[in-house]
Design a protein that fits this description.
elongated, mainly alpha
Length: about 100
């Protein structure tokens, strides 16, 4: 039983672990040139800035996140009575914006 249990444990690592070529690719990505990461981060930063600026221009004062591509915003007071689900539906149906 001990040998079978040990074999089962080793097999589970093999069967359920991350696929070896994927691990090798991840190592190469982490050790390689990071310019693409910087480029993507810059693109997200620009998109975030456009969104936050646009919301501010509409009077929706949201915080400018420092380390996220997501903008967390309270429901505007005029729509607070709807609750989050109904407000999200209204945005989707009337403004074609998904939140």
């Amino acid at each position: 039983p001990e040998l079978v249990n040990a074999l089962a444990r080793i097999k589970s690592y093999h069967d359920y672990g991350t696929f070896t070529p994927l691990q090798v690719a991840a190592i190469a990505a982490l050790e390689g040139d990071q310019q693409c990461v910087l480029d993507i981060a810059e693109q997200y930063r620009q998109r975030r800035n456009v969104l936050v600026k646009g919301l501010h221009e509409l009077g929706w004062m949201v915080e400018n996140p420092k380390a996220s591509m997501y903008v967390w915003a309270k429901i505007p007071e005029a729509y607070a009575h709807l609750g989050s689900l109904e407000f999200a539906k209204k945005l989707l149906l009337e403004a074609k914006v998904c939140v």
